[in-house]
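Annex B. Sample input.
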Amino acid sequence: MTDAGRPVDAVIASLPEHTSPGAGADLLVATFTRDELDAVRHRVGAVSDHHGLSADALSDWVTAVNELMTNAVRHGGGTGTLRLRFDGRLTCEVRDDGTGFVAAEHLGDRPRPALSAAGGMGLWIVEQMAEVLSVDSGPAGTTVRIAPSAG
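Annex B, continued. Sample output.
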């Protein structure tokens, strides 16, 4: 049961079903809070499973998307918007309305960060599991785009 009183199954049922869209079409668009993370993650997995990823690549993809959603909720004001697309390649965009951060401090070739109460591992995990990662962050919020590793 979510805090808003809606069972997780009801949230999952309210999300769009997979279709076979043409190139450049949205596969899934969802606004989420902490309460909907589980349901949206399950839908991302179900929709993404139809787009040629191996079982391992699919698991990494869903983990990476989940980290982005969790970051949006935790650091971006408590809510986020996910857009899953297929344009010859699966991509995901997660946006939030937080105050932004200096992305360069959290990206690039760096050792695994130490786990802390403030976080710090989410984008590192995403970098390990996604082939493409771009971050646009500023005072009006953050947008992160990823594409899965081949496989």
